[in-house]
Amino acid sequence: MRIFTLILGLILLTTFDKSVAQLYDTANVKLQIINPTLVLEHGGWDSAKDVIDLATYSRGYIWKSGTYSAKDINETVCISLNPASIRKQYKDTVIIFTSKKVFGIAKPEDLPPKLLTAHADELIHGKLVLWNAESPAWYLGKITPIIDNRKDQQDYEFYQSLSKFTVRNGLPFLNGRPVRLNTVRYKSTFSDKEKMIRDILALKSSNTNTAIVNRLDTSWLTLCDSLGFYTIMEHSLLPTATASGSFNEYVDIFSDDHNSGGYVPNIKFGSLIFFYVNSDDRSKVKKLNQDIPFFARYPNTFYGANDLPGVLTLKYETYLGDSTVNSNNNRKVLSNLQKIYRHIESELKAPEKGILTVTNNFSFRNIEGTIFRWKALNGHHLVEGSGTVPNLPAGESIAISLNFPKDTFSKSSTYSFEISFSPKNDTDFHGMKYITSPYYREYTAPDR
């Protein structure tokens, strides 16, 4: 806790020093709330969860101005679920609660007042929806501070999305469920928001759902939260890093000064699932995870190559974010990703009977109602049709009869078969027209 307090204090002091000239020009600003955050409980993630009933409301305070002693500081906090498509699925979309008494002190004779800080945590009860890339849910919060039973300053707004990443036996889990990470490296200066949106949508349409980046950017993470895209932050430790040196390194990770002008904790973004430490030294990774709960209240944030061998030891395609989508490199990467990753897999198991096996490779989404269109072609003879996928939960398979005409595979010949899948409506999967690229395969019909 001493480490956390020291770093928080240094950040707050820096903020105060930079803005002290402006503080006393705004008489109605008495108190600043620092990093209001909803924190998930550390335990109880052995089973899959879409909604949790309990979280911790964590925040800090800094007394900025005022000439009176405040004895009681309370807050009314309102958090609302977004986006609208997610709200339709849940009954309780707004949570309102009043915080308990926290603290309050400022000496009237202090002009300007002394810089005083405090930190407070308390449990809140309510149905909180967890974030995942297939069903991205986030919260917008508004805090109304009440000082000595009166509201004398502006409301404070904050953003939050909630997810819980864990590892079991070297396999990734999100919110208690096995999760597929279809990964690409993304290199960018993160300077163009519209370009980042186009990149995320292009990568999603190529069946990718995860980007490995080498720097943090709140604009990128906010877009990943809203569009549904996982982010892994890759970080290399210095070869000579000591316990102190390692600490300085990961403090830099959590400070996003280039983008926000202040301290931005990673815990606010559900899309940032973990940090990848590019090192095989388990002792260094362990040291980081021992210190990190004091700083971000987030256990096991760092993972090394040995912790997720099936995820972090692979070589990935590199998409260049500062190039156009149609550049030679990016066009090739997108084409390769479509071949490597498939959200839905299908195979014509018995061509002569028209039996199609469909596998749902999503981690969270039931693909019931997904539309499929198929073609079977032999020379100029074409047979085609369409249908919808029945109830098919994530990770499961099902056999579907395509009702081929009797003579489709009546002779010993080679036929091509092509199938594509698309959402049941344009709003599914955030505007993606197709979930999968067309699947093509040649079959030789059996003799009859």
Oligomer: single chain
CATH topology of the largest domain: TIM Barrel
**If strands are numbered along the chain, what order do they take across the biggest sheet?**
15-14-13-12-11-16
Low-confidence stretches: 1-28, 110-115, 239-265, 294-299, 430-434
Helix content: 10-25%
Signal peptide: 1-21
GO biological process, one term: lactose catabolic process
Pfam families: LacZ_4 (PF16353)
Keywords: Glycosidase, Hydrolase, Signal
Structure, described:
The protein is an alpha+beta fold and 448 residues long. It has helices spanning 2-23, 84-87, 193-205, 218-227, 243-254, 257-260, 282-296, 309-312, 328-340; strands spanning 31-40, 51-63, 73-82, 94-98, 116-129, 138-147, 156-160, 165-168, 171-174, 177-178, 183-187, 210-213, 230-235, 272-277, 302-304, 318-320, 344-350, 355-360, 371-378, 381-388, 397-401, 414-422, 439-444. The protein has a six-stranded parallel β-sheet with strand order 15-14-13-12-11-16. The relative contact order is 0.11. Mean pLDDT is 75; it is low at 1-28, 110-115, 239-265, 294-299 and 430-434. This is beta-galactosidase. It is an enzyme of class 3 (hydrolase). Keywords: Glycosidase, Hydrolase, Signal.
